[in-house]
Design a protein that fits this description.
Chain A: Belongs to the cytochrome c oxidase subunit 2 family. The structure holds two protein chains of two kinds. By secondary structure, chain A is an alpha+beta fold. Chain A is about 40% helix and about 20% strand. Chain A folds into two domains: about 190 residues, Cupredoxins -  blue copper proteins (Immunoglobulin-like), CATH 2.60.40; about 90 residues, Immunoglobulin-like (Sandwich), CATH 2.60.40. In chain A, helix 6 crosses helix 8. Chain B is an all-alpha fold. In chain B, helix 1 packs antiparallel against helix 2, helix 1 runs parallel beside helix 3 and helix 2 packs antiparallel against helix 3. In chain B, about 25% of the residues are buried. Chain B is elongated and about 60 Å long. The chains are: A alpha+beta, B mainly alpha.
Chain lengths: ~300, ~130
Amino acid sequence: MLPLVLTGCAGRHNWLASAGAEAQAVEDLFWVLILGAAVIWSLVIGLAIYAHQTSAPRKEPQARRFIVWGGAALPTLVVGGLLIWGMVILRDITAKEGDLTVRVDGERWWWRVIYDGPDGPFTTANEIRLPQGQTTLFRLTADDVIHSFWVPALGGKMDMIPGRETSLTLTPLEQGNWGGICAEYCGGAHALMRFDTIVMPPDDFRTWLAAEAAPAEIAADDPGWQVFLDEGCGACHTLRGTEAQGPVGPDLTHMASRERLGAGIYAMTPENLSRWITDTDRMKPEVDMPAYPHLSGAELEALVTFLMSLE
Amino acid sequence: MRPKHAPRVIDQGSVWILVAVPSIWAGHFLLSYWIAAIWCAKLPAGASLAEIRWVIAGLGALSIAAIAGLGVIAVRRYGGEFLVFEEITESSERGRDRFIGHVTLLLCGLSVMAVLFTVIPGLVIGQC
């Protein structure tokens, strides 16, 4: 049983990975809590066993004094101290300041991500890149139901509530691809609402940000682009710099530069993308995007080649 | 010392002192909650609680003063004591008074802690 339970304690979703300053603050509190609880539990159980087995005469005043101090005064102090410590952590991780601000909008079942680029805000989706060692302020909203934004290895989590804006800061300390999840049940494909959080050196991040802010590079005679237009993909998806400006689904301007497809659930490969287009609902049950099984083999191949070129 | 003028048990309404102490705690909690909720609802998201936290703390100080006042009454009029090594089993007017005084003092301690636990988040968390 234990090995099964402990499988949750490794890898890119590990909230004890200490990959971010905020996760470390929560982890410190966790260890103090768990060790303190272990000490108190051992003392209480030890005393209970001793009281059961000893034949020493009972001393009522001692017992009463023990109950007053150990049962009332000490717990009040411990709980009061933990309350203040927890409050300070909560205050710090919801601080309204950061070196960088990223807005994230929870949708069923994906993430709309808005960065402040060199020439103003631009939208991307389902993958968040962050500069190592800098504090990012996340401003969180939801479009439909309550979601919760959580990158366990870095810190958090925080609810995303329709009609309200919540905030959270993350200060990633270790490079890597850390998993993000929706931590509030939000409907059928809730468990498939994921994202990648890629922590990179600040210089690389700036290069990436400039590239990500740029419009899509499209050859007007690309047969896949024609399929994209003919099938009406642009009614839901945006390719910045083109007439495709649909706001409903994820922005696809640089989709092939993302590591995963379908909101963090499948590797970004031509095979997966092809299946996604023809068997969307099987890849992600209840997803809003309709499937396109009627595309001919040539059309599908052209469309996939085109989309995989959007880097 | 035998306490004087202690009202008799239920028929003269003496149990009010038991109800009053936790009611102050409940009142402080509700007022703090309402004030913060209305303040935050009327101002834009992420507004500061700085102005309100002192209102909550001030209400907390008033509540603790009122609880302390009731604690004094419990000691003076009911002969209340923090009894740790003794049980009150005496079936008499005086025994009942002492019991009410004793329970009131315990409730005073609990309520002061509860009011403080309401004030602490207001002081630590600075925003809505």
